[in-house]
């Protein structure tokens, strides 16, 4: 497989718990179908290019990092790149050589929309990846038509392949997702406690899982079960 060019050593790390298995997607749901498409892409039986979009907190970053983990597990050379965190780099230098990788995952495309240097560099990357037959996974909070991309050729490239909208979860699904993640961590989180958390904190799933992480550490440190009074104390609710 390909090896990552030296200039791509950006200190970007993946979360260990960003996997397809712990992304809550009920059987038969649109999000479940997206996970199947991402699996097929990595396995080489699906689309070469996939564009994901959805609201903030819908799980776009989780899915891109899960795809990166899965690609690595299959021996692929992959680069996950959160564009919002690398705006200080020169785009041509940053993206140069990425077509040598087996897969590139670009997160937060919104950050570079309307920036001519970035748009030109991304257009060149798309063409190079197409020519070398490599995989590309992109995520943004808007679809390719409404994202504000000013370079027409790049806008057309973004619509190559498959485009999927990641659906946000209902409050009921968030409660189930929170409970499922707690079980994975060996925690007992009753439905009443999960409901209490979801109803009183920001309902972005990333935030909810961060709160769960805090509760896990506090529960272990104090040897306490997750009750509503304990949650109130730890989270300051």
Automatic annotation (TrEMBL):
Residue stretches making up the Chromosomal replication initiator protein DnaA ATPAse domain: 14-162
Write out the transmembrane intervals: none
Q: Name one GO biological process term.
A: DNA replication initiation
The superkingdom of the source organism is: Bacteria
A Pfam family that this protein carries is Hda_lid
Stretches assigned to the Hda lid domain: 171-235
Query: What InterPro entries does its record include?
Result: DnaA_dom (IPR013317), Hda (IPR017788), Hda_lid (IPR055199), P-loop_NTPase (IPR027417)
The entry's protein name is: DnaA regulatory inactivator Hda
């Amino acid at each position: 497989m390909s090896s990552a060019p030296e200039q791509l050593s950006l200190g970007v790390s993946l979360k260990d718990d960003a996997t397809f298995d712990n992304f809550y997607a009920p059987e038969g749901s649109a999000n479940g179908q997206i996970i199947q498409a991402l699996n097929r892409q990595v396995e080489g039986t699906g689309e070469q290019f996939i564009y994901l979009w959805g609201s903030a907190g819908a799980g776009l970053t989780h899915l891109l990092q899960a795809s990166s983990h899965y690609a690595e597990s299959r021996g692929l050379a992959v680069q996950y790149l959160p564009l919002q965190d690398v705006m200080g780099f020169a785009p041509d230098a940053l993206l140069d050589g990425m077509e040598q990788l087996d897969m590139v995952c670009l997160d937060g495309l919104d950050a570079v929309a309307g920036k001519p240097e970035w748009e030109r560099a991304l257009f060149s990357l798309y063409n190079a990846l197409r020519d070398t037959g490599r995989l590309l996974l992109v995520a943004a909070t808007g679809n390719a038509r409404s994202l504000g991309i000013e370079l027409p050729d790049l806008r057309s490239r973004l619509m190559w392949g498959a485009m999927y909208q990641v659906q946000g979860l209902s409050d009921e699904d968030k409660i189930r997702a929170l409970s499922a993640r707690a079980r994975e961590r060996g925690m007992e989180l009753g439905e009443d406690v999960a409901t209490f958390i979801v109803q009183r904190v920001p309902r972005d799933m990333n935030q909810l899982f961060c709160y769960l992480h805090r509760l896990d550490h506090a529960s272990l440190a104090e040897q306490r079960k997750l009750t509503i009074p304990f949650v109130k104390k730890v989270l300051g609710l």
